[in-house]
Structures
1.
Amino acid sequence: EAQVTQNPRYLITVTGKKLTVTCSQNMNHEYMSWYRQDPGLGLRQIYYSMNVEVTDKGDVPEGYKVSRKEKRNFPLILESPSPNQTSLYFCASRDPFGSGGYTFGSGTRLTVV
Amino acid sequence: QKEVEQDPGPLSVPEGAIVSLNCTYSNSAFQYFMWYRQYSRKGPELLMYTYSSGNKEDGRFTAQVDKSSKYISLFIRDSQPSDSATYLCATVPFSGGYNKLIFGAGTRLAVHP
């Protein structure tokens, strides 16, 4: 089944403790992206990647890092999480020659206390 | 001003009603327009996309784009309880290689039997 897999689904952590949210896609998509979703603000792009070793900032990159060492994986790293990073996070991928739409993972609910 | 404005609802309708969901956008450079559906505790899934002004139909769903007034709509005919979800409009600017989706905040729809 074609899908984007994120882990973990739920995470509660403390301020300052480094964490990584993993993302993997099995569709051989070149483009991948991370979004956060907050009430009233909708989905906002954090980082995106056009291919292996090619990443760029989205609208809200502060406090986040990403890496793209392999085509299928695009982890999101929070080096020193803060409470304002409490949010619902989505990883997504797309085929640059496809319909234009992203395929989203099921989300990671992160709470930073 | 947000680049894409969407009434958050909630919108509650009886089964069988015609539903109209709407968004406005501010930048005439936006090219592609999409509608995503998001069920509770799930990632958004692409419902429809369109490039040009006019209508695009897919079963009970019709997407409409009016570029002159920067207005996009999604109509759902014969609405079903299974249509209860949050609907997100999204657009893609030409610049950036179609990497960046800009989302509205989403409209929550409830279809009651």
2.
Amino acid sequence: QKEVEQDPGPLSVPEGAIVSLNCTYSNSAFQYFMWYRQYSRKGPELLMYTYSSGNKEDGRFTAQVDKSSKYISLFIRDSQPSDSATYLCAMSAGTGGFKTIFGAGTRLFVKA
Amino acid sequence: GAVVSQHPSWVICKSGTSVKIECRSLDFQATTMFWYRQFPKQSLMLMATSNEGSKATYEQGVEKDKFLINHASLTLSTLTVTSAHPEDSSFYICSARVPQGQAFFGQGTRLTVV
């Protein structure tokens, strides 16, 4: 079993839709949870960062962490064609030398 | 957010030559940096963890002598692909973690070995 599971998609939605992206994980030591967006041939860009459980909202993006279920989500409201990219969830157990473990990434296509 | 700069963004080299990729944290000190490799349409594969002032820690299956990592200062880590071959062609990405826990990535380097 992988430490982090993420459906690779692709996920195709119409413009304006609400997008829900999810990851599950097995390591209960994970405390830091991140979502990255990666456009083709570019490095990943940090979108959201959450420590421990709870929700965090930033503009059209909302990140949720449920540590009891080992489940994290990223919601994108009013999706735009420019949101078309690969979204990677990532998590780590702590700071310093703790490795960041990535999901496989979900490819999202938002159709105009 | 914090800025991590990676250079070059792309490089083409002849088979058998060596290529050096730099990763710099511009506005923070990074005691630990990470090097990843990414094949088309695949996720990031951690190659090694680079620690300032000490030897890098390599993931299983990654050849230490082929992928030389040097983390000489708190703001610079380098990855040298030695005796590169076409199968080494890939997208190499570095990241550095700020004290608060978030990891920021460089722009990536597309290496093509011909």
3.
Amino acid sequence: SQQGEEDPQALSIQEGENATMNCSYKTSINNLQWYRQNSGRGLVHLILIRSNEREKHSGRLRVTLDTSKKSSSLLITASRAADTASYFCATASVSNYQLIWGAGTKLIIKP
Amino acid sequence: NAGVTQTPKFQVLKTGQSMTLQCAQDMNHEYMSWYRQDPGMGLRLIHYSVGAGITDQGEVPNGYNVSRSTTEDFPLRLLSAAPSQTSVYFCASSYGGQNTEAFFGQGTRLTVV
């Protein structure tokens, strides 16, 4: 069963613009993680945000978490062609041992 | 430091054949997992291990077996391949399970005909 649902499913923007992706989930979590997957490659960890945190930054990435709305957003500022990839959120539930994954957002940065 | 290494990268099997997907990590992580990724869906957990000698089932374990005789290796066995097992398979490891970042292999693209 999928816990996280990303929105939108696909996003195409011009290089230099900001990209925002959203993730919603259903149950209480310990943390929420964002990963990037380039075409044909494995997933790479971007940011982990814990349930008691509201915002986290890493370079051009900004992640927010609203536990009352059970949602998170990933903002990529000043996008680059190299940011073209699929982005996945994964939630660590308080009730089981597994990461539960969303279906991902496919981001295309047009030069 | 190789990280997580999966072999093979590509495989074609006939229905009913068996095979083993290999996964090795050199980071001394206790936690290892196998996922499958199908188009339009998130990763689904097949089996996982919290340490050598300990394995458990994930969301979609049917048709797959695992073992964990060492910390480094976590092979996934397909017992009798079916077309429904056509997928991309990823192995992942982490230091602290779901509460720490996971490191992924490059994946194995499996086609069952």
